[in-house]
Structure formats: C-alpha cells, structure tokens
Design a protein that fits this description.
Blueprint (H helix, E strand, L loop, with lengths): L11 H5 L12 H27 L9 E5 L8 E5 L6 E8 L2 E6 L10 E3 L4 E4 L4 E4 L5 E3 L8 E7 L2 E8 L1
Antiparallel strand pairs: 1-10, 2-3, 3-4, 5-6, 6-7, 7-8, 9-10
Amino acid sequence: MRWFGRASSEPLWKEEFSVRTADERYVTRRQLTKFLVLTSLGMFVGNVWIFIRSLFYRAPAYPRQTVAKLGEIAVGQVKLFTYPAPDDHCILVRTGENQYVSYSQKCTHLSCAVYYSQSNDRLECPCHQGFFSIKDGSVLQGPPSRPLPRVILEADGEYLVATEVKA
C-alpha cells in the first residue's frame, strides 16, 4: 500500500511517533534516577521546613484557672471542669484528705470520656475497657497505649488552681 508517494508499509504517523509499544512498559535508568532525585529533594525540603518551624515553635502558655474550693468535694468524689479551653474536659478526684489529682477526661485510645470508679480506685473508659491508674494516669489495662494527660494543680489560698497540662 502506498501512503502519499512512499513505498513503506507503515502509515506516516507510526514512523513519526517515536514510542514503540514494546518499549513503553520499561523504565530507563535515567527516568528512575530522575524520579528518585526529585522525590528525595521533595522530602529534604519538607524536612527543612519542619525543622525551621520547630525552631520558632513556642509551647502554649496555659492560663491559671480556679478549679474548685479546697474541701468542696469529699474524699473519693469527683468534680468535672474544662481546662485549658472550654472544649477540653477534665476530671478532678479527691484521693485523700489533702490530696487531689486531675486528668484530661479524654481517653488516649479513641477519645471516649473516662470516669472514676471509686470501688476499683481507677479511671475507666467504658468504650473499650481501658483502665488508668488514679495515682499517675498510667495505663493499667486495655487498648490505650499512652497515659492520660495530667492537669497540674496548685493550692492558692483556699482554692485549687489549674496551671498547666503535662502529657
């Protein structure tokens, strides 16, 4: 068959199109190297950006907030409050005559609310049976892998004041 005065059997577009179907599934070393270099460069730039942001990061300044009056709750009783923001729920437990502990009420597994079990002397998450120590917030049992964030309390006159949250 003649195509525009040529004696070739292939159409003109196939001769001018440089990609052969047999070769198009192979990746050349040059293409692979270009891909790896560009990917590495992108990851390097991302890490530099994270490093620069970490240099200028400042830990949040926690406000001082009155939580309760000393003696307001009985030994073994609980008071709920929010700290440091209105949507951060916390739990205050009076464990002794002059001993108070406070933790974030959000379970570290899937953010369910924990509650105090006086009979077991521990904080319990009802969603997945996660149990936390009342003394230090550490995980006793269950799926949570991290302890509860502790709210640091200070006695200020006749009041208990929350000063910061420690993870």
